[in-house]
Amino acid sequence: MSLTFQRRYPLFKKRELSGVYYLFWHLLLRLIGINSLNEVLMDEKKAGLEYFSTPQKLFVGYTLAILVDLTVLNLLDEFWHYVHISSFIVSLGAAILLQLLLKLSIGLEHKLANYFKSKPGTAPKVYRGISTYIILVGSKFVMLGAIDLVFGDAVSFSGPFNGIVAFFGVVFAIMIAETIVGKIYVALGED
Fold this sequence. Notes:
Elements: H1 3-8, H2 19-31, H3 38-46, H4 54-79, E1 83-85, H5 88-117, H6 123-151, E2 155-157, H7 164-189
Antiparallel strand pairs: 1-2
Helix pairs in contact: 4-5, 4-7, 5-6
């Protein structure tokens, strides 16, 4: 960030802006002719000043993921008769639980995949494929059991194979929605 810019806009110093002020200044700067704060933030990054801390980035990322999960769950509850959730607060709890279990299963899968990648030969590649399949499919049954244990009849999946198909549909819809939101986020950050 240049000294001239700091003199003209004294609030732009390391970590002085919250999200609301950031949005306010972003809109104000656009009104006076500066396209975005990306230049300012990139200058800060080049100078070694990160605008948001890692915990802040994680908080925003997980909050966004939970909101995406919540939206998908409620849309499927509304429009697909195989998914029933008794109330909004239950769907919020289910979204948080699903997000936690999804991240744990993906983390476990990556950890095991990295272990097998480090081993030479063909057998570790086969073991990696088998373990990935078991974790990614098996974890869905663990998630289904956890939702049943925590929420009981407040969340139900019906249809083919006693609701297993509906639950897998929910999980895949959540993963697709998170991927789409992630791609939009990345695209918005490109110049």
